[in-house]
Amino acid sequence: MAEERIQSIGLHNELQRSYLEYAMSVIVGRALPDVRDGLKPVQRRILYAMHELGLTPRYSYRKSARIVGDVLGKYHPHGDQAVYDALVRLAQDFTSRYPLLDGHGNFGSVDDDPPAAMRYTEIRLALIASDGLLDEINQNTVDLIPNFDGSQEEPIVLPAQLPFLLLNGCSGIAVGMTTSIPPHNLGEVVDALIAMIRKPKLSDEVLLDFIPGPDFPTGGEIFIGKGVKDTYLHGRGIIKMGGVAHIEELQSTKYRNRRCAVVITELPYQLSKASWIEKLADQINDDKITGITDIRDESDRDGMRLVIELGRSIEPKEILNILQRRTSLQTNFSAIILALVNGQPVQLSLRKLLEHFLSYREVTVIRRTQNTLDHVDKRLEVVEGLIKALCDLPRVIRIIQSLKNIDNTKLNLQAHLNLTSIQADAILNMPLRRLTNFEKNTLLQESTLLRQERRDLYLLLKEREALLKSITNELKSLKKRFATPRRTVLRDENIYPNNYLTTKVEQQQVVEGPLLNSQLLISQDGQVRISSIQSIKKLRLEDSVEIGHHPSPLQLLLTINSCPNVLAFSSTGCVGLLRWEMVREQPRSIANFLPHSLREGQVIQIVPLPSYTKPNLSLGLLSSDGHFKRLPLEVFRDLPGQATTIFKLKQGVNLLRVIACLENQELILGSSMGRLLRFKLQKGILPIVKRTAKGTLLLKLLPGESMAGATCIEDQSGLILATAKGQIKRLSCSSLKVTERGHLGQIGLPFRKKGDTLVDLQSTSSEIVSGQLSSGRSFRLRISDYDIESTLGFGQQMQLARGERIKRLIPLIRNSNSK
């Protein structure tokens, strides 16, 4: 029997060594994400296993239990429930800003409802994971290592094309450290990456303009201040966030008088709705919060809606402030940007995180380019060999016929035609049907393309500037495909310390501050900014501008010291208030200042609501199928915080135009065929109706015809008409007959070119009208430069580029103080 060897060691040394090994195992192998792809090991293994199974978005779902089994058996020998929990989180759209998995079944809810068991749910890769994380996995972009038992290989990291650590965020608790990274908006992150590529020494202030704050999947609001700045500059900070609420006046019933309610449409990130309601009810029962008579959860598939009904004599704003102070309606997000860098946990600033990603992306693109170049070289070698054979085909046939041994034939081909071994094999394997002149021409064309591709690939490997340009173009393409409007609204911490509800008083405080006498600018491409009067004068908005690549035309210019209410209308028939109080000099997308529920449709028009009341002033709404209705201004004066449906539309029908109307004005409608109809805005013909009214059919469209637009005119004003192929005409409205509903109208613009269509019409009450072309170019014309014509006139022809079309005309709306 062998002699036993027992070695005495210090207990504290062994504990220190063992605990350190355990801690590093948890840090590196379980709890912390990698800065390069933003994934923890279990998440990476789930995605890779699904990729190996071919579960792309183009194929059907597969049972979650099958995925969990593959991950456990091949890559991750831990508990099955831990793997399933990680899989579920990757599929939850209320946890991840851009879910990496597409789930089918019950994957839980914001009410903390548990997901169904793995044997019931089904899953596959989401498109952003398939194309943004795993698309380059087979192009030698990352290293592979053996799995836990050496039977398989798995990637060390995935070849991410986007910084998913920022996009989806991450949370994890390791030994002695934790990470808590909030999710962000893809469009803003890509813009920041492109700016850093173009200018690596970009200042922190400019970088924070590109990424002003997190963008949570559940919406809500965050307060921009010291917490956000500390998070981005130092990697750790406290971000104040909260839900979205507004006050509604409930309709009275037979048994209940008219009263108010606080309606909550969005809760802070990671806050359970059911838990919040339960805790609020406990405080009401304990008399810690009084004045609330009822709590109803009216949430449905269209979104969250918690109605907190108040007593008759209760001030709703006071209750709202109490809810913010005493419940989690206002809470904090403790952000810690901690991730693995070269296998070591490092606390990162926003700049460092983006720099690490860009460095990694540069390496993966170089490896991908080298891999593609190797394949191109191999294919080019084969193609050139086949071309040599086809150019001397009789000789090749004689050599093959004269020898009986394949090996000798191959050697003879190499010797006589100066071929490589690979080329000789390709010739011997070539079928007889390819021995044609057509095949020879095809190979010559392929050779030319391969040589050009090889030159382009060499350029990427040789010149870093070309490589960075390629990365920039790829980022732009991904942004175009996957970017979505911001869901979380940004608020100024100094202006909104305790109250989420924007009122006229708070707007007045904003206006009386640094924005006094500033101008609110909204351009056609949806960018919003604040500018000084001096900057506006430099734009020379009264001058006509020829067609060219100019900045996007302005559609709204307002002096904001009058605290205007600005309405945004979507193509789905909804309206919401534009929250312009947070707009600053740096241009931002208009989606950041709109109610979350309004972002589902395209914003088709921005309308400032007059602060004064004209008699019989209304807003007219025109749908794409020719229906029209007039609504009183009172409908729009007290809109709630969320979007409101003001025109119920049939499927496939969109809201086309919103028009300010005065009694006794005239309404002009136009169709794509050039038909124009003129109506009197009188109560008996086009009356003002309620919000729930369906609207009146004014123009019955013919087959192949569509609505071009509509406008209201005064007695002496005219129209400016534009066609897709560049025909511009100024029309006298006196040449149009006043019609009634159901009339076919009359042709107001005979087309010069075959296949042309009317695309827009505007009133000549505005001296300057801009236009937008399909190519992205624009122009600005002065209406007085065009002669007034009758319905028989052809107007003037603009010189457009080949294939270019006019999309629409854009009148500049401005108040009297903006001139």
TrEMBL record:
GO cellular component, as recorded: cytoplasm; DNA topoisomerase type II (double strand cut, ATP-hydrolyzing) complex
Keywords: DNA-binding, Isomerase, Plastid, Topoisomerase
GO molecular function: ATP binding; DNA binding; DNA topoisomerase type II (double strand cut, ATP-hydrolyzing) activity
Catalysed reactions, semicolon-separated: ATP-dependent breakage, passage and rejoining of double-stranded DNA
InterPro entries (alphabetical): GyrA/parC_rep, Gyrase/topoIV_suA_C, Topo_IIA-like_dom_sf, Topo_IIA_A/C_ab, Topo_IIA_A_a_sf, Topo_IIA_dom_A, Type_II_DNA_Topoisomerases
Annotated Topo IIA-type catalytic domain residues: 32-505
Entry annotation: catalytic residues: 120 (o-(5'-phospho-dna)-tyrosine intermediate)
Biological process terms in GO annotation: DNA topological change
EC number: 5.6.2.2
SUPFAM superfamilies documented for this protein: GyrA/ParC C-terminal domain-like, Type II DNA topoisomerase
Pfam family of the protein (one): DNA_gyraseA_C
Record-linked PANTHER family: DNA GYRASE SUBUNIT A, CHLOROPLASTIC_MITOCHONDRIAL, DNA GYRASE/TOPOISOMERASE SUBUNIT A
Membership in a protein family: Belongs to the type II topoisomerase GyrA/ParC subunit family.
Protein name: DNA topoisomerase (ATP-hydrolyzing)
Gene this protein is translated from: gyrA
